[in-house]
């Protein structure tokens, strides 16, 4: 018994180095739990009857636990039970070991992401002949760079011989020896054929992993696992005798496989910053369905994974995320309904075709930064395919545009390794090339042209690399959060709109240490009976208009927006001071109506004083929990009806809101919640180790349990000590338990709690599966409780229990069981409110 416990601990310690053990979602449930750093995960596992699997990659103090498959959520049930007991007691909450759980999420298999490729129509008739002079120039370049790749001549996105200039303009960069050396791009996709002759020399196994089959190498296995390999070819196909070349043909390429099987938020979060010190750029040509009716954001764990990567990846300069904009334009889809493409941490890349035309599929949105070449007008991207020496002429969709961006950024990182993730976005804004296509091009405050369809224009590898060489690095990020603007008014239908204004003062931005704006995000709530009828515009103090949301003919969702966050890059470089006006329209006159509830503006940008800047706390489930906070400061918002013709609310009289809605200058300070208070419940969490019990003498584990945040080697030693301590505690507990059993009898027997001696209990097999040895006691009396609470409350004092059972409403246990049963019945597949999983309608 003790020996096996020892083995378990030792193997857990050894596993912290390598990967987590392979998941098996058929046989087990997995929990991702954020613990106070002072809490030992093995201690928590014992307390909850879980098996500790290991730390959760780069996410600090996040851990993975498993239990045999079962219906309920062991951890959330225990947390809720603690809350309930505290409410019941009405006394000041005494510390409990469960207080160290900041966040818990039982993992669910999530809907598959969609690859953003398309089967392009090839149309030879529309192909124009190559120009002789251009072909000669191309051949001269190939000779000079010793490029002998057989399809190099077809790779029009690299050097266009038919419509010169319609390419990424990279050959001049290569001539300077900038070819992606010492840079690694990671293709997060359906695999990567590392045995392909075109990829094998650049393949980087250390940065690769297969999160579908839980093996080290992301080898394509399914018949349609071609997408990742094609994307990899665009970035890093070698200069050799196979197919063509990648934009960064001397860069390293790794693959993380997530699109070919079951995946959970936890695995996606691990995948999206996998080996974040070795992989520099993550290429993501996938996302939620582009069907014109989905609205889906990454779950909280994934969002935390991305924030961690931009703060810690690349030695603190920040991992670069590139996302394909989406292929749903023909469905009136918009990349602002996709929480990956509208993240401030991702560079959203849309597509143009070889004639610089907008291809029918490429989505527009205010979060789109740039476009580059892909399929359309009868041709597509020619690159590497799965197989020893296999090529494709048919890589298309925004899937094929994203990796051209990735290759270009690899060149930027070679030319200027010290650029941060925000410098890369700045460089894109400053060097993208607007082109002569009708669109809503608008000149921004800093003199750049922006279009929702094409972002800041098309990428130009030469221009961005040249600019990177001498770019003055931006100061660290700062941000300003407005309070919630409570509008709570009906939205007029038709051409009318409902406007709400927030006035940002110089003082607010000074206090927020914010010098100039880069991204803006706007989180909002609208109740509406048909979501697709809505549109939302944001007009900045400088008069720049972002179309945050656009109408969607197929989106019948009957509940509007719930804490949905829109993003815009159209205000890049603005000061941000003055009136920000949001205008909501219900464009269709029908019986589907709605109300604009509230909104909150966040300005993200460059700090004034770098010394005062600090990293953004990791997002928590409670970040938008301050919805209804109202204070006595003067109103800064007003709601007015505006005619659709223009942003200026002139023709309609101003209509004051029902009650003053208040700005809260005090909120002007960054991030209301610090990362260390990611509470799954409201109780303040102590930063010091929590004693495992209050007054009870039969405390079975020592309170200052060893911390986990030490090096691997030290951990082995610590675990050695843990084992000794546990062995001692177990013996002590046996003693105390027997002693206590004598004391507690009859009526209060039902409130018995387990201690470590239960390892000796051989009735464990009859209990529900989630009980481990340490918790498997008291079977006869407790079985009806479903095993969900067992020893999480092992430390309850006798006094507490006594007062509970003396409660006038009768025996505590009966009520508790009843409540539990009701709760279990109601809970069903619920993930417990604190989960922040990637629900379709919520962006945490
Ligand atoms: C999970 O376990 C089941 C039962 O042992 C087994 O049949 C299945 O192949 C396993 N799946 C994986 C992915 O290992
Ligand atoms: C492309 O790169 C060259 C340098 O090789 C540069 O002179 C030129 O301006 C760039 N742009 C276009 C459209 O050719
Ligand atoms: C490659 O990158 C590493 C890490 O950024 C750096 O230490 C090293 O000097 C680079 N090597 C070259 C040849 O640029
Ligand atoms: C809008 O608010 C009104 C008044 O509070 C309410 O009766 C109506 O049901 C709300 N509409 C929606 C779609 O929630």
Automatic annotation (TrEMBL):
GO MF annotations, alphabetized: serine-type endopeptidase activity
> Where is there biased composition of kind Basic and acidic residues?
810-824
Entry annotated with the keyword Phosphoprotein = no
Return the Acidic residues bias intervals: 796-809
**Where do the P/Homo B domain residues begin and end?**
474-609
Q: Where in the cell is it found?
A: Membrane
Instruction: Specify where it is mainly localized.
Output: membrane
The catalytic site is made up of: 189, 227, 399
Provide a GO CC annotation, any one: Golgi membrane
Q: Where is this region: Disordered?
A: 82-106, 610-698, 794-844
Q: Compositional bias (Low complexity) at which positions?
A: 665-697
Asked if the Swiss-Prot or TrEMBL record annotates the protein with the keyword Calcium, the reply is yes
For bias type Polar residues, the affected ranges are: 637-653
Mind telling me which residue stretches traverse the membrane in this protein?
716-738
What start and end residues bound the annotated signal peptide?
A: 1-18
GO BP annotation list:
peptide pheromone maturation; protein processing
> Which keywords does the record carry?
Calcium, Glycoprotein, Hydrolase, Membrane, Protease, Serine protease, Signal, Transmembrane, Transmembrane helix, Zymogen
**Which PANTHER family does this UniProt record tie to the protein?**
NEUROENDOCRINE CONVERTASE 1 (PTHR42884:SF14), PROPROTEIN CONVERTASE SUBTILISIN/KEXIN-RELATED (PTHR42884)
- Protein family per UniProt: Belongs to the peptidase S8 family. Furin subfamily.
The molecule here is called: P/Homo B domain-containing protein
């Amino acid at each position: 018994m003790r020996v096996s416990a020892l083995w378990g601990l030792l193997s857990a310690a050894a596993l912290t180095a390598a990967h987590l053990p392979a998941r098996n979602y058929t046989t087990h449930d997995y929990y991702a739990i954020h613990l106070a750093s002072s809490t030992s995960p093995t201690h928590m596992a014992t307390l909850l009857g879980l098996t500790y699997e290991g730390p959760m990659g780069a996410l600090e103090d996040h851990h993975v636990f498993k239990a045999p498959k079962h219906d309920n959520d062991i951890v959330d049930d225990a947390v809720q039970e603690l809350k309930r007991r505290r409410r019941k007691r009405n006394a000041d909450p005494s510390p409990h070991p469960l207080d160290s759980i900041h966040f818990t999420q039982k993992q669910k298999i999530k809907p598959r992401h969609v690859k953003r490729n398309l089967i392009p129509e090839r149309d030879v008739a529309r192909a124009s002949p190559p120009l002789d002079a251009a072909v000669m120039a191309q051949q001269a370049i190939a000779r000079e760079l010793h490029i002998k790749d057989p399809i190099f001549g077809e790779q029009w996105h690299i050097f266009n011989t038919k419509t010169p200039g319609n390419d990424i303009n990279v050959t001049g960069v290569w001539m300077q020896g900038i070819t992606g050396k010492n840079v690694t791009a990671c293709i997060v996709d359906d695999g990567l054929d590392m045995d392909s002759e075109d990829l094998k020399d650049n393949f980087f196994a250390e940065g690769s992993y297969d999160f579908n089959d839980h093996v080290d190498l992301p080898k394509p296995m399914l018949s349609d696992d071609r997408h990742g390999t094609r994307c990899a070819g665009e970035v890093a196909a070698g200069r050799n005798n196979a197919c063509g070349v990648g934009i960064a043909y001397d860069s390293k390429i790794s693959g993380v496989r997530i699109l070919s099987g079951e995946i959970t938020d936890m695995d996606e979060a691990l995948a999206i910053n996998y080996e974040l010190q070795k992989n520099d750029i993550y290429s993501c040509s996938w996302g939620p369905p582009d069907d014109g009716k989905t609205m889906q954001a990454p779950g909280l764990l994934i969002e935390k994974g991305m924030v961690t990567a931009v703060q810690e990846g690349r030695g603190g300069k920040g991992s670069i995320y590139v996302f394909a904009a989406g292929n749903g334009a023909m469905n009136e889809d918009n990349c602002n309904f996709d929480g990956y493409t509208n993240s401030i941490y991702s560079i959203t890349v849309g597509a143009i075709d070889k004639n610089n035309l907008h291809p029918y599929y490429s989505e527009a949105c205010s979060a789109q930064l740039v476009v580059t070449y892909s399929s359309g007008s009868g041709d597509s991207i020619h690159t590497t395919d799965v197989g020893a020496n296999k090529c494709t002429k048919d890589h298309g969709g925004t899937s094929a545009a994203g990796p051209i961006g990735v290759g270009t950024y690899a060149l930027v990182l070679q030319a200027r390794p010290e650029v941060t993730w925000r410098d890369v976005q700045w460089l894109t804004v400053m060097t993208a090339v607007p082109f002569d296509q009708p669109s809503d091009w608008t000149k921004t405050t800093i003199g750049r042209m922006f279009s929702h369809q094409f972002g800041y224009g098309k990428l130009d590898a030469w221009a961005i690399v040249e600019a990177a060489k001498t770019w003055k690095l931006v100061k660290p990020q700062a941000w300003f959060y407005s309070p919630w603007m409570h509008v709570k008014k009906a939205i007029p239908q038709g051409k009318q709109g409902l406007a709400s204004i927030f006035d940002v003062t110089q003082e607010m931005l000074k206090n927020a240490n914010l010098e100039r704006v880069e991204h803006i995000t706007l989180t909002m709530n609208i109740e509406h009976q048909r979501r697709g009828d809505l549109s939302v515009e944001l007009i900045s103090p400088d008069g720049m208009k972002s179309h945050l949301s656009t109408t969607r003919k197929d989106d019948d969702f009957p509940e509007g927006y719930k804490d949905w966050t829109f993003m815009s890059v159209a205000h890049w470089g603005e000061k941000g001071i003055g009136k920000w006006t949001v205008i909501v329209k219900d464009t269709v006159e029908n019986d589907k109506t709605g109300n604009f509830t509230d909104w909150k503006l966040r300005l993200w940008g460059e700090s004034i004083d770098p010394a005062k800047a600090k990293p953004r706390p990791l997002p928590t489930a409670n970040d938008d929990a301050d919805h209804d906070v109202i204070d006595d400061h003067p109103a800064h918002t007003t709601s007015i009806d505006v005619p659709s013709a223009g942003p200026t609310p002139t023709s309609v009289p101003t209509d004051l809101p029902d009650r003053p809605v208040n700005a809260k200058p005090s909120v002007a300070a960054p991030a209301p919640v610090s990362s260390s208070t990611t509470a799954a419940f409201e109780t303040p969490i102590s930063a010091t180790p929590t004693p495992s019990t209050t007054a009870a003498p039969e405390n079975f584990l020592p309170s200052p349990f060893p911390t986990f945040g030490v090096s691997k080697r030290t951990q082995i030693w610590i675990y050695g000590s843990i084992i000794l301590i546990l062995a001692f505690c177990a013996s002590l507990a046996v003693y105390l338990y027997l002693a206590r059993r004598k004391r507690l009898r009859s009526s209060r027997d039902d409130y018995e709690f387990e201690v470590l001696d239960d390892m000796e209990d051989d009735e464990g097999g009859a209990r529900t599966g989630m009980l481990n040895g340490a918790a498997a006691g008291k079977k006869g009396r407790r079985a009806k409780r479903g095993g969900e609470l067992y020893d999480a409350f092992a430390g309850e004092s006798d006094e507490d229990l006594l007062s509970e059972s003396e409660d006038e409403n009768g025996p505590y246990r009966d009520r508790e069981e009843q409540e539990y049963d009701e709760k279990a019945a109601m809970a069903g597949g619920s993930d417990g409110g604190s989960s922040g999983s990637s629900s379709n309608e919520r962006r945490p």
